[in-house]
Amino acid sequence: xxxxxxxxxxxxxxxxxxxPVTRFDEELRQLADNMLETMYAEGGIGLAANQVGQLxxxxxxxxxxxxxxxxxxxxxxxxxxxxxxxxxxxxPELREASGEIVTEEGCLSVVEFTAEVKRxxxxxxxxxxxxxxxxxxxxxxxxxxxxxHELDHLAGKLFIDHLPPLKRQLVKKRLAKxxxxx
Length: 182
Description:
Layout lengths: L25 H17 L3 E3 L9 E4 L25 E12 L2 E7 L2 E10 L2 E7 L5 E7 H14 L10 H17 L1
Antiparallel strand pairs: 1-2, 2-3, 3-6, 4-5, 6-7
């Protein structure tokens, strides 16, 4: 496995729509493994393929990578010592969305900025496995939020695109300046 470079705003690939996966082969499995390794290394809970330069409809997620967690005695368990529960979604498609939840979102592609974003609190997602088998499942709360965030990436959108227009414009200017100075 390899840690891949994560594209940062305003990289043009982040604004492009991902294409459906049609080949379910070892290359796809390797990409998914590398994306998981990258997500863990970067401290995220989700990652879309276009964030690592691949315009494919592929998302990985592991909510156990989220802090904080408690052990049996109530002590904090470091993220890297917890068992991993990776999920891989090929060609994910939102089938239903309901409810409302507002959470503070960040992004591995948008450094040094978080914002409150309103999303559906419950979704039904259809996708394929790495072998091409169809699946459908209901997700709620943080899992629903994470998957909607990653589906936005596949559509060429960032979480900052959900901000009110004036705030979005100010944030994008600030982020562009940060990117130029890096």
